[in-house]
Amino acid sequence: MNILASLTNKEGSEKFLHRIRDHVNVIYASAGTRKYLNNNGVVCSGIDSFTGFTELLGGRVKTLHPAIFAGILARDIESDMKQIAEQGFIAFDIVMCNLYDFDSHRNGTLEEMVENIDIGGVSLIRAAAKNFSRVTVISDPADYNMVAESIEKYGHVEDGIRKKLALKAFSLTSRYDSLIERSLSGDSREMGSVDIYIPSVGKKLRYGENPDQKGYMYEIDNYGKLKVFHGKEMSYNNYMDASSAIETSLEFDEPFAVVIKHNTPCGAATGKDHSNALTKAIEGDMESAYGSVICINGTVTVPVVESMKGVFVEMLIGKEFTPEAREMLEKKKNIRLATYSGRGPSSKIRTVFNGFLEQNVVPAMPETIRDVVNRNDQLLQDMIFAWKIVAHCRSNSIVLARNGATVGIGAGQTSRVQAARIAVERAGNRAEGSIMASDAYLPFADNVDVAAASGITGIIEPGGSIRDQDVIDACTKHGISLYFTEKRVFLH
């Protein structure tokens, strides 16, 4: 095999080449890569000894030469091979290349950004990817092992692996160019600023939301990682619920647990520890907890597992699992277990009929909370808690909470007062002494009347309605504390 190597990230390249050395004919490398490989015991020649000229323009031109690109782009046909032989060129079988780290310079000066735009590397990767029917392109050190295993087993790289790596390479160059364009144009909100990634291969799911729909999952490590290590294959709906659970958990630093059903919280709580928080969250709506997805923002321990006793759970997510907890849970075949890390994307995208929409992600916590009627600081902690939860419930939504736990949730309604009635109904006697959070302003005083009839002591809502005074008057009449956030948290 003839190999060309031009690497910014050289980590692991020497181990890969040592591993396949019995299959290697010759290695040509750019100056920096050659020095690294030679220092690590890999015999290779400089590209200049092959092309006949040294690097030009301070390194801007290293690999841009017909001898290189003819050797990469030559098809496995007689006429192509004859032409490169006549020129004294060779056909390259493997191209090892990754790109300048532009990302770490994107906030630098214009000169710094320009100097860290890779030209030769992108050209090499694209050329090798185009000719994947014959050439293997390795643009990610994480793929060295996969290529080495194929060579060790078959003496060559399998067709499917070459195509997979080519798709990955095209995805890399696409993201790279997009990053450069956004960085040079500036972070203009008027132009949109979302990081758009095009993963090369989506993981096929059993089906979409329903059995007659196809579904795929495209993972983006830059956003966050969800590692499922036990249980059945994830479905489309499992991913949706898991995402909602994790996003809600990210709002809290203290021990927290959330129970998700149909992509919206049905129970949530903070506690003295995660076991206590989960117990309270499940008690928030025992009926809806059946077949739910649960997430805690910490380590799953034996007490956490015991908190779920008697409840069928589709999926349990935590930052980590203790060995003892894993042993207990892995005896159950029908539960999915997963860990998560990361903070998620900074912007969200949703497709619509004629394109897609983008919006940035902001934390639910409002910058200010203004007391409007009957200031009561003792209720404020529950109000903040409920506000963070209502922000992750499908609108229109109402959340009732007490002592750091939800007691009733009404979500996904076309009428706000109906959402309030549902929340009160779910809470039953527990509504007494609770507070109410509304994801948008209360349009009428009827919501206050529902709260008063149920013994609710405080309300937190955005304010801003033309009928705010009606709501204020109703709260004053019933002795209910009222706080405005001046911030709406719709979740459609």
Describe, in plain words, how this protein is organized in 3D.
The protein is elongated. The chain is built from 17 helices and 23 strands. It has a 6-stranded mixed sheet with strand order 8-15-13-11-9-10. A 6-stranded mixed sheet has the order 18-23-22-21-19-20. The protein has a 5-stranded parallel sheet with strand order 3-2-1-4-5. By secondary structure, it is of the alpha/beta class. The protein has 3 domains: 184 residues, Methylglyoxal synthase-like domain (Rossmann fold, 3-Layer(aba) Sandwich), CATH 3.40.50; 118 residues, Cytidine Deaminase, domain 2 (3-Layer(aba) Sandwich), CATH 3.40.140; 115 residues, AICAR transformylase, duplication domain (Cytidine Deaminase, domain 2, 3-Layer(aba) Sandwich), CATH 3.40.140.20. Helix 7 packs antiparallel against helix 9 and helix 15 packs parallel to helix 16. Helix 1 links the parallel strand 1 and strand 2. The protein is 36% helix and 21% strand. The model has no long low-confidence stretch (mean pLDDT 90). It starts with a strand and ends in an 8-residue tail after the last strand.
CATH topology of the largest domain: Rossmann fold
Largest sheet composition: 6 strands, mixed
Strand content: 15-25%
CATH architecture grouping of the largest domain: 3-Layer(aba) Sandwich
Short account of what is shown:
The chain is α/β, with parallel strands linked by helices and 492 residues long.
Descriptive terms for the model:
about 500 residues; alpha/beta; Rossmann fold; Cytidine Deaminase, domain 2; 3 domains; six-stranded mixed sheet; 17 helices; about 20% strand
